[in-house]
Design a protein that fits this description.
- This protein is an alpha/beta fold.
- It folds into 2 domains: about 280 residues, Rossmann fold (3-Layer(aba) Sandwich); about 270 residues, no CATH class.
- The protein is about 55% helix and about 10% strand.
- It has 22 helices and 10 strands.
- A 6-stranded mixed beta sheet has the order 6-7-8-3-9-10, with helices on both faces. Strands 2-1-4-5 form a 4-stranded antiparallel beta sheet, covered by helices on one side.
- The longest helix has about 40 residues.
- The structure holds adenosine-5'-triphosphate.
- The site of adenosine-5'-triphosphate has 10 residues, from helix 1.
- Adenosine-5'-triphosphate binds next to helix 1.
- Belongs to the ABC transporter superfamily. ABCG family. Eye pigment precursor importer (TC 3.A.1.204) subfamily.
Length: about 625
């Protein structure tokens, strides 16, 4: 059903409402936020001593000039920003813990983060799967998705991939994803930016209806027109991180006038002309918008503004909230996630499978690169496997095999992961699913890709370079390749989760080049300097290389063929002494690789957890 302008009541809200919620209030007291500048060790205050209360049933508009701290305030209230924040967040006068605030507050940021391989409708459907409880039947979910498509004006692009929609459509979709679960408190950062007047009105009207049904909704709003202003019940106006107004929209101008801040505030004749013209065209927009912005943009030394700010800071809490227990009023039956971990895992796997099948470029490229390198290696080292005269060349095959696995695994992870992890952080902070479910899904999805891509390489090279066709050797070699590939993959995910694509690529090269030195192939343990030796003992490349050498030449392999009169390395014992691996212990290599896997998997987990927790 399309929403008619000027008729917000026509929004089909009934099915979007699950239960009626009693009135409540989200309030914050003495909220300050500062940043330390690393370069000159100075400290800037971004939000100073802000207090206020947003009541359910009323749509709150947060206004102020660019850089006033509007987005920062929403980041702080939503819990997205936690470091260097002081103050209290309360529901009905009861302090809201961090965990609890995550349960009740949803936040739609200015930047959109969408899965590029999904269509608009699919994105909403997956959001519905994650955010709506299983008790809601699929038909009802379908109705909600369809309603949102219409209300947000996305019906015409429902089947378009999110990578192809316009900026405004992407913005509306990102709001829709959060609207689906009908959260108790919604903080929206510029929900109308990028939208035309009609769409902006529709979004605001929809949001107002949600507020009217007992939600707290606060949104940063830029340049609202008179119709949009009529929808905004309360205004919270910021100037350089300080509050200059909080209260009903209609009373703002009067409040400013009490401090001699009457419109127009500036007396530049040129500006005055502009003011007059604007006033003639659209009086209400002129009064609210220009008054708010002009006052907020005044010099902080302006006496009138100073008095106004002092008054606002003095009069922080005129509302006396009822002392209700948050537990009873809010959390009684409120679950952080709509689905169990297992159910979350199921939906995550479904979504990833769909994205991978649709956007299979990365996967195909990885397989093709592996085949190409495998064929080149096979041509270069054809039939070396059982030739004692070419044993060094054959050892090179083993190390090339490991490098190919390393680079294809790490590069595909660092290229794709930074963007994916940004979406994960956003969805996770908004309680779509837990880190545990996401991490499990990631492992389940990555493992088959890794097995397939490294097996392709390994099998081609193994066959054409004539390595021994014994199941024990094939199995042990494959296991080393797989574990090494998993280490590379985890390293890629770790880099991708903590840094940008560019930095991850540089760092992965920085890791691998010295790691080659520590493989034991170029500098055997015996010849390593005192400085190099400790690095060889911890190098995962060395353990993988040793494991591979053991798989191919260990386990009491018979002497090699010698096509010449004399081959020094015909007896494998001599070769193993030469590469400084006389007493090979395959299981120790596996144990060391396993240790690395556990370490890196833990590191990836904790780095993702840190990202969810940090600002
Ligand atoms: N981590 C940070 N380090 C340094 N400065 C910061 C940091 N976070 C915010 N700021 C500064 O705080 C001020 C407020 O930023 P914020 O993004 O909240 O403004 P805004 O009112 O939302 O602006 P806009 O309307 O342009 O989006 C800006 O001057 C910004 O540069």
């Amino acid at each position: 059903m399309m929403l008619a302008i000027g008729d917000p009541g026509s929004i089909p809200m009934e099915s979007l409402e699950s239960t009626s919620v009693r009135e409540f209030e989200l309030s914050f007291r003495n909220v300050s936020y500062g940043v330390k500048h690393k370069r000159d060790r100075t400290h800037s205050v971004i939000l100073k001593n802000l207090s206020g209360s947003f009541r359910s049933g009323r749509l709150v508009g947060i206004m102020g000039p660019s850089g006033a701290g509007k987005s920062t305030l929403l980041n702080v209230l939503s819990g997205f920003k936690k470091n260097n924040v002081t103050g209290q967040l309360m529901v009905d006068g009861q302090r809201l813990s961090e965990r609890r605030s995550r349960k009740v507050i949803s936040y739609t940021q200015q930047e959109v983060c969408l899965w590029s391989a999904l269509t608009v409708e699919e994105s909403l459907r997956y959001a519905a799967e994650f955010k709506l409880p299983r008790t809601i039947d699929p038909q009802q979910k379908d109705v909600r998705v369809r309603e949102l498509l219409h209300v947000l004006g996305l019906a015409s692009c429902a089947d378009t991939l999110t990578s192809s929609v316009s900026g405004g459509q992407a913005k509306r979709l990102s709001i829709g994803l959060e609207l689906l679960s009908d959260p108790k408190v919604m903080l929206l950062d510029e929900p109308t930016s990028g939208l035309d007047t009609v769409a902006a009105y529709q979004v605001l009207a929809h949001v107002k209806q949600l507020a009217a049904r007992g939600r707290v909704i606060a949104c940063v709003i830029h340049q609202p027109n008179s119709q949009q202003l009529l929808l905004i019940d309360d205004l919270y106006v910021l100037a350089k991180g300080r509050r200059i107004y909080s209260g009903p929209t209609g009373e703002m101008v009067t409040q400013f006038a009490r401090f001699g801040l009457e419109c127009p505030v500036s007396h530049n004749p040129a500006d005055y002309g502009m003011h007059q013209t604007l006033y003639a065209i659209e009086p209400s927009r002129y009064i609210f918008y220009f008054t708010a912005l002009e006052v907020a943009s005044l010099d902080q030394e302006d006496e009138r503004l100073k008095r106004l700010m002092l008054e606002e800071e003095k009069d922080i809490f005129d509302y006396n909230p009822p002392k209700l227990m948050v537990e009873k009023s809010f959390d009684g039956s409120y679950q952080r996630y709509a689905l169990s971990t297992l159910q979350q895992l199921g939906v995550l796997l479904q979504r990833t499978a769909r994205c991978t099948l649709r956007d299979s470029y990365q996967f195909k490229a990885r397989i093709l690169i592996n085949i190409a390198i495998a064929l080149i290696t096979s041509v270069a080292f054809y039939n070396t496997g059982n030739n004692a005269d070419r044993i060094l060349a054959n050892t090179a095959v083993l190390i090339i095999n490991l490098y190919a696995i390393f680079f294809t695994s790490i590069v595909s992870a660092v290229l794709v992961y930074p963007r994916e992890s940004a979406c994960f952080v956003l969805e996770s902070k908004n309680n779509w699913y837990s880190l545990r479910a996401y991490y499990l899904a990631k492992i389940v999805v990555e493992l088959p890709t890794l097995i397939l891509s490294s097996s392709v390489f390994f099998l081609i090279v193994y066959y054409f370079t004539a390595q021994p066709f014994e199941w024990l050797r094939i199995g042990t070699f494959a296991l080393v390749c797989l574990m090494f590939g998993w280490i590379s993959q985890m390293l890629g995910l770790l880099l991708g989760s903590v840094m940008s694509v560019q930095n991850s690529v540089f760092v992965s090269i920085l890791i691998m080049v010295p790691a080659s030195l520590f493989s034991g192939f170029f500098v055997p343990l015996r010849d390593a300097s005192v400085l190099l030796k400790p690095l060889l003992y911890v190098s995962f490349v060395r353990y993988a290389f040793e494991g591979a050498v053991h798989a191919i030449y260990g386990f009491d392999r018979a002497d090699l063929e010698c096509p010449e009169v004399f081959c020094y390395f015909r007896q494998l014992k001599r070769f193993l002494e030469f590469v400084s691996m006389p007493d090979l212990a395959y299981r120790y290599d596996l144990l060391a690789l396993l240790g690395w896997i556990v370490l890196l998997m833990g590191a990836v987990y904790f780095s993702l957890r840190r990202r969810i927790k940090q600002d």
